[in-house]
Structures are given as structure tokens and as C-alpha cells.
Amino acid sequence: MSEARIKRVQCSSRAGLHHMAYKEWGDPANERVLVCVHGVTRVGDDFDALARDLCRDYRVVCPDVVGRGRSDHLRDPQLYAVPQYVSDMVTLIARVTGQRADGADSRVDWFGTSMGGLIGMVLASLPGTPVARLVLNDIGPVLDEGAMRRIADYIGQDLRFPDFESGARFIREVSSSFGPHSDDEWRKIATDVLRQAPNGEWVRHYDLALAEPFKAITAERAKLGEAALWRAFDEIRCPTLLVRGALSDLLSHATAQEMTTRGPRPRLVEFEGVGHAPTFMQADQIALAREFLLG
User: Which of 16, 76, 222, 266 is positioned for an S-S bond with 240, CB 3.0–4.6 A?
Assistant: First the structure.
């Protein structure tokens, strides 16, 4: 089955219930599941090329993290944070894996880009984790302060475009760190995250309140968060692949090298000419993921 199905799962938070949408590729009866989770301002559609390639071997599940894309917005914007996202993913995994016929615990492989990698890192660190293999795409326990400020400023801007083409030009400009792509690929990157408002303007797909938790980050809280992420990383035991854009301003080469000596001791692969973050739309990047996940 090479076409995706759009589904929804109901999740909970202390503010109430919400729905998370996800794309599912491949045989719905396939017990081998790959969960692909996107970056902070992106969507599950980002993984279309990767999912098409892998859906013969996996059931590939690509959620829109709450507050993005087809998913609901949260009533309390302070809940836009990794703990809530991990809770939602546990609910999603329970939905898509169900009960195995042999009674064994269900397992999934995980591909996480940026924020999706942080979610996967925390989930993989938990006792009894369902994560069997882990790909961390341009993310680690240390987050560059300047890059975080850049992302925070970008998220909160209420940008509106008179037509799709002007919005697409903006997305291409702010996403230049993704590295070289064809015109068709850039159009796909823009199409995934732009939608037309009732007044005809084109806007980005997510809840602008995503910026609120970023605004609340202090130097002290950032330091505590980094220590917690390193503790989580050190608890991971599953086979792990660490991917880095060689020009990334979010994951430094030094941090990536330190990661290879700790926790799961991941294999590190860096893509030249790419910053934050590799899109895995292109053949060489897809081949790397296939080799690690299925090789």
C-alpha cells in the first residue's frame, strides 16, 4: 500500500482531551512499525519520501505533533513541551501497535528530526520503552542558545502572505539550512506547512502559542533541561544512529562527538553542505536510514 491514510487518536493533558492526527503508510496489519516525528514547526508530511520507500517493510506512522498541521491545539500553551509530547506518543503507539498475537510487548523503531528526536530520546530512555531502534536527526542534549533564540523568534511571528507563491518563497528562505533541493522539493516543503485562511491569505499551519514555552526559558531552566536530557541519553540502550548536518547551528560537532562516547554510543554520520536539519527527501539520505533500520 503506497498511499497514506489520515487517522486521528485521542490523547489527554491536564487541560482536557485533544486529537492528534497521523499519516499511516503500508500494510495496516504489519506489526513492524516505524514512527517518524518532525521538527518544531514542521509536520508529518515531511516524511512522505522516506515513508514511500520504507512502507514495503514497515507500517510507517507520521504524526502531526499537537498544535501543528491537522492536529488540535492545546488549551494551555505551556503544555507545548516534551513531557506532553511523550505522553501523546505513548498513546499513539498503543493505538497503532495494539496487542500482539503472541502476547509480547509491542516494539517500534523511531526516526526523530530535531524536536522529534528529543521526544524519541526521552521515550527511549524510559524503563520498558517500546523503542527498539532510534534515529536522532540533528539533535542532542545540548542546544545552542543562539539557535534556540532564532527558533523562538521565528515561531511567534504572525506572518501572512497574499498568495501561495510569496509564502513559498519565505519558507524556502528560512529553510535554506536544509541544504540543496530541487524546485519541486522546495515547493513540497512549503506546501506541507502553508494553508489558506478563510480570508484568502496564506498562513503557517501551527498554533502561534507554541512560542509561549520558549519565552519562559531562563538560563537556569535551560541548564536544568540540558542536564535532564543528558541523563535521558545516558539511559538509552537501543541501537542508535546520530545524523548531523555538517553546518548545523543546533547540534555542534563537539556535542555529536561526545554523544558517540556515551549512552547508546551511536554511529555518527554527517552530511556536508547541510545545516539544520537533513530532510531525508533525497536518495542518499533515505539509503542511510534504510541501511540502519533494515540492514
Answer: 266
